[in-house]
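Appendix B: complex inputs.
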Amino acid sequence: MTNEQILENAKYRYEKDNDAFAEQTVERRAFVFSAHPEIKTAFDAAESASSALLRACADGSSGGTIEALRVKYNLALSEQRSRLIEAGFAPDLLDFKPRCSLCRDTGYVNTAVCSCFEGYIQEERRRSISSLLVTGNESFDNFSLSFYPNEYSDHMATILEVARHFANDFEGASKNLYFFGAPGLGKTFLSACIARVVANKGFSVVYDGFISIMTVAEGYKFGRFGSLADYREQYEQYFDCDLLIIDDLGSEMSNSFTASVLYEIINGRLLSGKKTIISSNIDPDGLDERYGAKIHSRIWGEFVVMGFVGEDIRAQKKNM
Ligand SMILES: [Zn+2]
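Resulting structure:
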């Protein structure tokens, strides 16, 4: 999901909640009016005085006319407030009040995103990650070392600790992560645990299989499969997001194009100081042969390289 889609979804839910909140005022008014017709009369008078005043301002009426209408409006408003107090209500009971006094429900304070709207954006980010994750229960607490043979459990505990530290101190992480090993050893699961924690902190996370990254790259660079613009934004996300997780590197048909795209992404992200996690079935020593010396040296130099060992966890679970 692109940042734009995330923002759009967040905006949709934000406005829906604002509307629901405003609807409460409408319902409150109806309730008060049904029991107190005198309040309705005063309310209608104030509303029509307000419209007359606004119309006069918009029409460019003379200052005297506007002033007279303003006085009339203020009188009608205080009449409305007096009727409410007499009936035992708060004087501003019928006023529309924003949910957020900082941004008055616009979502922005000047050009900055207001904290009330930021919450919606973060929630959307969490949702967009969750939809990509495998089972939805990926969390460090659910990562069980009991699936690994005894002789490997210390080694795997260290990997778990490094991953946990990377996620918890994402802002301070100086290296990237390269997970390698046979399928079914928990690489994707552990990447997903990290994705969840980092996204919960409000960072943008993109999680994609390398084959799907290559499809986007081909779409963007060669205009295949549809419009170029659709792919441009998606492709740029691989560079712009705070954390990119490339899953399943090595499962694609490799050629010089896959190598050049991989290098472009890894190198671009290193240059801008953005973090990347790669999970792969390729032993890092085999990277040279498959993707070339430049990628090989980037991975060894800038990534914490960790090998997953043990027996296929999916198969173990199936036999339980
Ligand atoms: Zn706000």
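The two ends are 36 Å apart (CA to CA).
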